[in-house]
């Protein structure tokens, strides 16, 4: 990939991991090269994030992150649409806001519109058993540049409203992937000194549900840095959430995908390999 430096800085190529001629400038914006159609990002601003912050009056970057929806080559668009799949890229700014690392607002995925049933075209090593119980859509992430802490939480079906049964932290660096199983909400945190760039592949038509996070003023925990030390602080709007536990990143081969091959390359060549994201059969792997 050849990119021209932005006014005021260099451009770092993301092409090897992204499978698309993309770069990221020092300002955190994507640079599109090689004739790849440009996508206008949707910003998430400080004002929009205040209700989910540890310190809601703190100052911070005007834009927390940029969301680029539906990236790819026009020649691949029809096949991806037929399989109800979409590839996005999100860029999170670095820094602290009232002692808290910059993060996404957090969201859950909606329930599938029908019970999960066996599908003869969708055998999958991590989704071997169908169930009649409704579930939410899963999602697949991969870090292209920077560092990520993924904070996942599972609501408790037996507890009071807002109760949490499980909290998981996954640390991820460049090339690492994360499969978000059905049922989990998630927040992405940027604990590093540079922009965090990550792609995600998801069912193309659903709308993320931010309401539970907004109502509870964030996830069950906030990640804080103080005097160079990072730690998690429980969100008092949740009733006694379990302590976060650490889980490893997802191995792509465990999902029936190829390790070391850019996800967009695999998606464009064989979108049916990602059909478990649009038509999940069961809960997926245990984190």
What is shown here, in short?
The chain has 287 residues and is mainly beta. 11% of the residues lie in helices and 31% in strands.
Secondary structure blueprint with pairings:
Elements: E1 11-13, H1 15-18, E2 22-25, E3 30-32, E4 42-45, H2 46-49, E5 63-68, H3 74-82, E6 85-92, E7 96-97, E8 100-101, E9 139-145, E10 148-155, E11 164-172, E12 177-180, E13 185-189, E14 196-203, H4 211-215, E15 221-226, E16 229-234, E17 245-247, H5 263-269, H6 275-278
Parallel strand pairs: 11-17
Antiparallel strand pairs: 1-2, 2-3, 4-5, 5-6, 6-14, 7-8, 9-12, 9-14, 10-11, 10-13, 15-16
Describe this structure in words.
This protein is mainly beta and 287 residues long. It has a single domain, classed as Jelly Rolls. 11% of the residues lie in helices and 31% in strands. The chain contains six helices and 17 strands. It has helices spanning 15-18, 46-49, 74-82, 211-215, 263-269, 275-278, and strands at 11-13, 22-25, 30-32, 42-45, 63-68, 85-92, 96-97, 100-101, 139-145, 148-155, 164-172, 177-180, 185-189, 196-203, 221-226, 229-234, 245-247. Strands 4-5-6-14-9-12 form a six-stranded antiparallel beta sheet. A hairpin with an 8-residue loop joins strand 10 (148-155) and strand 11. The longest helix has 9 residues, at 74-82. Residues 1-8, 116-134 and 283-287 have low confidence and may be disordered.
Tally of DSSP β-strands: 17
At CATH level 2, the architecture is Sandwich
CATH topology: Jelly Rolls
Q: Point out poorly predicted stretches.
A: 1-8, 116-134, 283-287
Mean pLDDT reading: 88
The amount of helix comes to: 10-25%
Coarse shape: globular
- Give the SSE order as H and E letters: EHEEEHEHEEEEEEEEEHEEEHH
SS class: mainly beta
Number of helices: 6
Total count of domains: 1
**% residues in beta strands:** 25-35%
CATH class: Mainly Beta
- Gyration radius, in Å: 19 Å
| Adjacency order of strands in the biggest sheet | 4-5-6-14-9-12
